[in-house]
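ugh ok fine here u go
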Amino acid sequence: MSALLALLLLQADEPLRRIEEEQARLRAVCEEVKRAYVFFGQGSGVCISPDGWVLTNFHVSGDRDGQRVRMTGGKAYTADVIGFDPYGDVALCKIRDGKELPFRELGDSDALRVGQAVIAVGNPFLLGNGSWEPTITHGIVSALHRYMDNPGYSDAIQTDAQINPGNSGGPLIAMDGKVVGINGRIDIRRFTNRVNTGIGYAIPARQIERYLAAFKAGGRAFEGYVEGITIGECGDSRYEGAGLYGDGIFVAGVVQDSPASKAGFEPGDIVFEIEGYRVTNANRFHGIVGNWPQGETLRFKVRRKLDEVELKVFLGDPEKIREREEASRRFPVGLTLAPGAELRVASLDKDGAAEKAGLKVGDVLRRGEGRELLCRDELRGVLVSRKPGETVKLVVLRDGKDLEIPLPLPLPAP
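structure:
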């Protein structure tokens, strides 16, 4: 065989070799990711840490503790909902006493490009129940930054990977094996029959990552927004004559003494960038801002006449946030917890149930009724699981030592 003929045969085999390599890589990724899949009662989830933190949709988990879940292969666990965002349709759960569990890390959804290959892992129509093997479908990223309201998929990834009822809460995976989104919504407008029509939506991993601290603190997380500003589209006919065309949003009004005015917004400003993300229209403005929870401060870039100005903008209403936080830290047994994820006693009501039981300021609540207390909502759940007059068994950390303290729940006032 001549050298030229051998070269031509080698070149002819090259496309087939590349296809075989791609198939082998896809099979390897599928085997890796399905081990971290979590079966919920009517949907899906994915484990993102070896100690059992699990992501799913809020419409799958709700805010219920003590849910029975299974991982691929069928091993059963009990999971509690720690933090959740009903509007954004995300929930963070914790598998009780999770150790050395298979997991998949969150990836960089900002690096996704249209046309990029992805896989969706789920349990369509609950077909995997019994065998406890999830379904894996393959597709591409069809579009990015899709904005939808109610629920608030305000910065969604659109994919043509097959997603059906039962896939909700399952991971969207890039070819590096990392979770780039949580699948949650199907476009049913064409046939209205809750089956895949080639359009599915996933909540991006970067958005979820920014909410993780709020989720782990426990309870409901709230989407960011700019308090005290009225916006319009550049080129909107309502503002005809203002000479506002092109990308960005137009600041039509600012409420005096609001977070927006304190940040330095002025009527006529054109917001064209937030935290490095380009603002193209009002939907994109809301989509970017909603990527962060309330209480965060973001960098906004605005055009003001011939100048470019950077503003630092607080998201939400500070007074409402403070009121919610104070309410979440106070408990009817007469104790208030300090800010932060650690359940440290900040104050005790004189002659309250907690003080009478022997709790002290500075104690860290570790366990309740044998369960590890990871957040304020778990403590609240333990307290409401017992009737007034019954006793809750607490374990607290004091001076470096664990102490058992029985806490009698107060009877209602006569």
